[in-house]
Amino acid sequence: MRNEAPFLLEWVAYHSLLGFNRIYVYTNACTDGTELMLERLQQMDVLTHVHNPMSDGLGPQESAMKDFLARLDVQELDWVLHIDADEFLNVRTGQGRVADLLAVAGDADVMALMWRPFGNNGLTRWPGGSVLETFTATQARPRAPNAQHKSLFRPRSFGAAIDHMPKEPVSDGVRLINSAGVPCAPNALFSRHQARYRLPVENLSWENAYINHYAVRSDDIFLMKNVRGDGMGRVSQKYFLNSKFYRRQNKNGGRDTSILCHKDALDARVAELMSDPVLGFLHTQSLEAFFRTRDRVLTPERIAEWTAPPPAEQG
Question: What is the pLDDT of residues 218-274, one digit of tens each?
């Protein structure tokens, strides 16, 4: 994570409710209080906060994964899910818990969990509040043009990992399945630089589980990612309005509120975390700071600068 303080508590509370035994959060160069909040959460024994060592030649994501997989306590874990602060695992089988998904995984080494992109719900300015309750507009069905996955995997079965999947399998017989439990060709796991599974259309599935991907949220949150920077350390127009990435992820044709099945428990967990005077203060301060920074940075001139031409106008 980098500068995710306003959204941190909901993400942590939600994934702790799903049944993950441990949460590790890597950060680098935060300026909005994210690291202060994480340090407090670590003191409360909610998670483990690690300052990203930032290995030479590697972006933040790859550097974090390299350090993470080298930890002895990680090698003792049965399963790992690597996701970002704008991604929420949505389990749609059983009671909607991690254990229900692991029952589907069986003896597989990797489960490819497909993104489900959620759009901006028509919001240009975020008023605050729950991401899960605010952004319910989404893509209606799985589609090949923007098919991406994250991975639930056994750390002892791999020697490395990138942002979307593990790499360097320790066995040629590594088993990859999709969220429906269907075996898939594991070719991508053996290719160091391939970041997509490139599964055939018939293997693209939201059955049992998917990753709710809030890559856009409201337009102002999306534009502020230009200030934060890219998780892979790249400089581009990715976080411009009308960019290719924006168009691929800003899907509002369907509606999905299934993740809110945990709403009551989530609200209670967030309230419990907020009742800590230190954590509550830091969260409130981070939210106010976000609004101040947004209003200072996102002038009409800057928004125009960070808006790409419509596709028809591009060469």
Answer: 999 999 999 876 545 555 789 999 999 999 999 999 999 999 999 999 999 999 999
Specify the 3-state DSSP secondary structure of 45: coil
CA angle 44, 3, 21 (to 5 degrees): 35
Pairwise CA distance, residues 308 & 303, whole Å: 10
Q: State how far Cα 154 lies from the chain centre.
A: 19
- Tell me the whole-structure pTM to 2 decimals: 0.95
Q: 166 forms bridges with which residues in the sheet?
A: 161
DSSP 246-293: HHHH---SEE--GGGGGHHHHHHHHHHHHTSHHHHHHHHHHHHHHHHH
Tokens for 214, please give them.
Answer: 């809030």
Per residue in 120-179, pLDDT (tens digit) is: 999 999 999 999 999 999 999 999 999 999 999 999 999 999 999 999 999 999 999 999
How many helical (H) and strand (E) elements, i.e. helices and strands, does the chain have? 13, 13
